[in-house]
Amino acid sequence: METIRAHRLAARDAARRPWPVVFAWAYFIWTGNISTIWPLFGVGNQLLAVVALAVATTVVINIGRTKYAWITFAPLCFISVTTLTAGYLNITTNYWPMATGSDPALQVQGYVNSICTAVMLVCVVIILITTSLRSLKVITGRMPAMTTVGSGGAGLAMLKTLSIAIVISGVMSMPITAEQTWTGKISDSACNAKHQEAAENEGVMPDKECTEACVRGGSLYALIADGKVFQIANQKNADLVAQAGQRVKVTGELKDKTITISKIERVAE
Question: Has this prediction a pTM greater than 0.70?
Fold first, then answer.
């Protein structure tokens, strides 16, 4: 009893002193921007939904309601596959290239984000394996299912846990959007990162003039940042005309490689 009480007191004291968590998030924000941190939030958000659905499925099976387990098992399979795959791709295509790149300012951030993402993925895989083994024991009869025994029974307690898990999984599975920041150049969909000659042997036009000419010809504005081409949703943004061909800092929301811009600022070359 004393040991349990000591653990409860320690947990309560930790909750009253949130500064370690505050400093941890401050480090992430101070060493980077939301465009690199937000994928980590997204993976963590969906992995929490995976955990909630895994717990819910296990609870349903353990209270002897196996025929209803598909209700939580089906979305669990979908979210597990997509999120674990996304987490792996997040490390291999986003964070690890930063860690092994030539920019020293991004290396530490890349290593930290890679490690944090990997730790979350490993923990969730362990939870999935543990809950699967427990459920298999009940299904195969190697472990008896629990039943509800009155209002204070263990089965009722597990039903309450199931309800909470389902609510959490629903909330955590909701898509989350947030503004991100990119630094790059305003170009057009025809030339993208490389402007072509206006005519044979006349040389390449300046970026600004080429972008303006291509847009007049029917092309759309685009942002070239980190070697990637991003489409721009709000083409009528007045700042696009003023910043055409210029190096800028763009703030907005990203969806399917298309940015809805909220702010554009000129950046010194």
Answer: no
- For 136-167, letters b (16+ CB in 10 Å) and e give eebeeeeeeebeeeeeeeebeebbeebeebbe
Count of beta carbons in the 10 Å neighbourhood of residue 25: 10
Say how far apart CA 260 and CA 36 lie, in whole Å.
18
Per residue, the 3-state secondary structure of the chain, as one string, reads CHHHHHHHHHHHHHHHCCHHHHHHHHHHHHHCCHHHHHHHHHHHHHHHHHHHHHHHHHHHHHCCCHHHCHHHHHHHHHHHHHHHHHHHHHHHHHHHHHHCCCCHHHHHHHHHHHHHHHHHHHHHHHHHHHHHHHHHHHHCCCCCCCCCCCCCCHHHHHHHHHHHHHHHHHHHCCCCCCCEEEEEEEEECCCCCCCCECCCCCCECCHHHHHHHHHHCCCCEEEEECCEEEEECCCCCHHHHHCCCCEEEEEEEEECCEEEEEEEEECCC
Report the alpha-carbon distance of residue 8 to residue 128 in Å, rounded. Answer: 27
Question: Who's near 131: CB < 8 A, 6+ residues apart?
Answer: 54, 55, 57, 58
pLDDT, tens digit, 9 for 90 and up, residues 80-108: 899 899 889 888 887 888 788 776 767 77
Looking at domain 180-266, does it have CATH number 3.30.2010?
no
